[in-house]
User: What shape does this take?
Amino acid sequence: MNQLLETAIKEIKKLPFQKQGNIAALILDELRWEKLYTLSQDELGILANEALEEYNKGETKPLRFK
Assistant: This one.
């Protein structure tokens, strides 16, 4: 564990029980999003490659924004 995290945990331990739970929930939420983001990068790469293939084959249409 790095020093910054150790310091944060020491400070969190000083807080009321409810606040500790709130911070713990935020940290766990962040970890879940990080995991989902990491997993989705492979999927996004696959979709990007498919889109490029379709573009190179002339199978796409330009979007027209007003």
Observations:
- Helices lie at 3-13, 17-56.
- The chain has a mean pLDDT of 91.
